[in-house]
Amino acid sequence: MTIAPDDARQSASHVYRAMRDVVQSMDDSLPGKFEITKEGIVHDMMSPGGPHEVTAAHISRRLERVMPDELLAHNGTPDVENAPEGITRHPDVMVIAWDDLDVEGSIDPRTLIAAIEVVSRSNPDNDWVGKMRDYPLIGIPIYAIFDPRTATGAVLTDIHATPDGPRYATRKDFVYGEDVTIGDWTISTDGLPRYKD
C-alpha cells in the first residue's frame, strides 16, 4: 500500500495524540518526567531535589535579578508543545514573557526567549542530543545547557537550515565559575552544585 503525504501526516498526528494520552496518564502515577520527541517517549528518572533542582532554582533566580520585570525565568509547568512536529518538552527553566505564560494548556515554544536544561544524571543524551535536535526544530531561539556531572555547559543560538532540519549554528561552551550570557543577560555560574559520585 502507498501512503500519500496527507495520509502520512494524519498517521503521524494520530501517533502523536496517542503518545500524548499515554504520557498524560503516566504523569501522575510514575516518578520522573515524560516528554515526547521525534524519536518517541522519553522517560527521565530524575530524583526530586538535589543538585538538579538547586541548579535550576539558582539559574532562575540569577536571571530574574537581571531581566526586566515583564519577563520571568519560569521553572514550573506547563509543557511547551508543537503538535504539528509531534514534540512536547518540559524545559527545566524557560525565559518567557508573563503575557505568553498566561495561557490555557501548553505553551507555544515560539514564544520562549530561551530554554534552559540541567543535565540529568540518568539520561544526559536527552539534553545533549535530543533537545539539541528538537529545540531548534520547534523554534526556541536560545538553548542553554548546564551539566552538573562535569561542571560545564553550553549556550546554543542562531537557528539555521541544514539538510537534517533546523539546527543551532553557534555554540559557546563554559565551565562553572565563569559568567555565562543567555540572550541579553549575563549571570554567574559560581557555586552551582555538582552531582556526587
Describe the structure.
The chain is of the alpha+beta class and 197 residues long. The chain has one domain (45-188): tt1808, chain A. It is built from four helices and twelve strands. The protein has helices spanning 5-27, 50-66, 98-101, 124-137, and strands at residues 33-37, 40-44, 71-74, 80-82, 87-89, 93-97, 114-118, 143-147, 152-160, 167-175, 179-182, 185-188. The strands form four sheets. The chain has a six-stranded mixed beta sheet with strand order 3-6-7-8-9-10. A two-stranded antiparallel ribbon has the order 1-2. The chain has a two-stranded antiparallel ribbon with strand order 4-5. The termini are far apart.
What are the key terms here?
197 residues, alpha+beta, tt1808, chain A, 6-stranded mixed β-sheet, two-stranded antiparallel sheet, 12 strands, 29% helix, globular, disordered N terminus
